[in-house]
Write a structure and sequence with these properties.
Length: about 475
């Protein structure tokens, strides 16, 4: 048995967002003031018990979380009272330029909007990359929706002719749909209807909001999910499958935006049920705010405090940007990760350990792994860092590398804070994400201005399975001193 698992293990390969709202600061301050008064009153009364440091931290956190959740809920309820169908779109006119609406609702709409652009051929290149990266079975799950936003008949006619010539088969099989939407300017809020933009960037921001609002409004009934894409990106092979498996794993977990790229705009997935609320939010915001910052604010208003971003990215930018676009939409550089640096840590578990397979093997960066038998719901394997760290990325791999056997079918990775000695571990945990096909590869983000560092990484078993389990590798990347400064 030991030889079998050893062979399986050795088959593994070596390897400026918006400031947080003032009311959040108020909540935290009130929590600490209240707690300080509570402890002071107890001391004055000579109460015959004392709280441990871990318990104090837990009380602070519970007070903070309780009041924070109450405030978030209040803001959320106000936000949800916004009309589900904005009156702005009740008189919107759409014209079908190519293709027809699919007869059945799909899993995902890939939405692209295009205005006249010095690099208009980028749209054709983007579509070419999209279809080449997708297999026939994958294409059954998606609808590609292109919105051409300029009303100029000559430009529309030429662009549609180019698309129809290159992608005729996808149009005929209802996989590609090209539309033109027009929003009456007199229906826009007074602030947005003012065409005297104070800057060129403001004009671009305004146009992007209108164009994508029209696109999202049309897409709201085509599928369950919506992928936002720019008109100048290239896709990696099997990107549809990557999104499919993530959506399956996250189906029972509340989320607002899932990010499959480090690009500020492209690669974000939404529930189509949120699109009408998002388009209304576009027009309620000041016109000089870039769309990507609005998306961050929208995510926070719906109680997702930090980004959920998967690596590696499923798409990259082609790079054909004008000088103005480079200024108005500065590119987020794709973070390049070196080899993992797994800081010093101890590893504990309550799973059944097979002889000569120790929990620490899952964390040591070599070809060894940890093997266990018949994990049950609630079992865990926890990495306890020797000192708190600013972790930037976590990878968890289960199962044998080549055969894909003995993986954890249902599990999730949690981030732990406030280390405790008894019991050993952390006082509180937050969800990083569920395993996707037995693995996890996610960036780790912290709330704005947070100084909190990570102390534990916990792999939790969510369902009992009658089989062997290999936890092949846990990889951790931490922030360097240069990055911190």
């Amino acid at each position: 048995m030991h030889i079998l698992f050893t062979l399986l293990c050795r088959a593994a390969p070596g390897p400026s967002i918006m400031n947080r709202c003032l009311w959040r600061y108020t909540i935290v301050a009130v929590s600490f003031l209240f707690l300080g008064f509570f402890f002071q009153k107890n001391n004055q009364g000579h109460v015959e018990y004392s709280l441990s440091m871990e318990e104090k931290k837990r009380v602070v956190w519970q007070l903070h979380q309780g009041q924070l959740k109450s405030e978030i809920k209040k803001h959320l309820e106000t936000f949800k009272k916004m009309q589900k169908k904005s009156p702005l779109f009740q008189h919107t006119n759409y014209k079908f330029l190519a293709g027809t609406i699919p007869q059945e609702k799909k899993l995902l709409t890939v939405g692209i909007s295009l205005a006249p652009h010095p690099h208009a051929s980028d749209l054709l290149d983007t579509l070419q990359s999209l279809f080449r990266a997708s297999s026939e079975p994958e294409l059954k799950y998606i609808t590609v929706l292109v919105h051409l936003s300029d009303p100029d008949p000559g430009w529309l006619s030429q662009t549609v002719a180019n698309i129809s010539s290159l992608f005729k088969q996808y149009i005929e099989t209802q996989k590609l749909l090209v539309i033109h939407g027009l929003l009456d300017s007199f229906l826009l809020p007074r602030d947005l209807n003012n065409t005297n933009h104070s800057s060129s960037c403001e004009k671009l921001y305004f146009r992007q909001k209108v164009d994508y609002a029209l696109l999202m409004n049309f897409a709201s009934n085509l599928s369950d999910y919506f992928l936002m894409v720019g008109n100048n990106v290239h896709f990696v092979p099997k990107f549809v499958s990557a999104i499919y498996w993530v959506l399956s794993a996250w189906k029972e977990i509340r989320w607002v935006i899932l990010e499959f790229s480090s690009l500020s705009f492209s690669g974000k997935v939404f529930h189509t049920s949120d699109l009408s609320r998002l388009t209304s939010f576009f027009f309620l915001s000041p016109k000089d705010i870039p769309t990507d910052l609005l998306l961050s604010k929208f995510r926070f208003l719906l109680a997702q405090n930090v980004p959920i971003r998967f690596t590696p990215s499923i798409m990259g930018v082609m790079g054909n940007y004008s000088v103005l676009e480079d200024t108005c939409f500065p590119m987020d550089k794709e973070k390049v990760f070196d080899e993992p640096d797994n800081p010093l840590a101890s590893v504990i578990t309550d799973m059944m350990t097979i002889s000569n397979f120790f929990p620490q093997y899952a964390y040591i960066l070599n070809e060894e792994c940890y093997a266990t038998l018949d994990p049950v719901r609630g079992n865990h394997l926890t990495v306890i860092l020797e000192r708190p760290q600013k972790v930037t990325r976590i990878v968890v791999l289960t199962g044998s590398h080549k055969e894909g056997k003995y993986l954890l079918h249902q599990g999730q990775v949690e981030l732990g804070y406030d280390p405790m000695e008894h019991p050993k571990g952390c006082a509180r945990y937050t969800l990083l994400g569920p395993l996707v096909e037995g693995n996890l590869d996610q960036r780790v983000f912290y709330e704005d201005d947070s100084e909190e560092e990570l102390s534990c990484i916990r792999l939790l078993v969510l369902a009992t399975q009658d089989s062997f389990l290999l936890i092949r590798q846990i990889k951790v990347w931490t922030e360097s001193e240069e990055e911190e400064s």
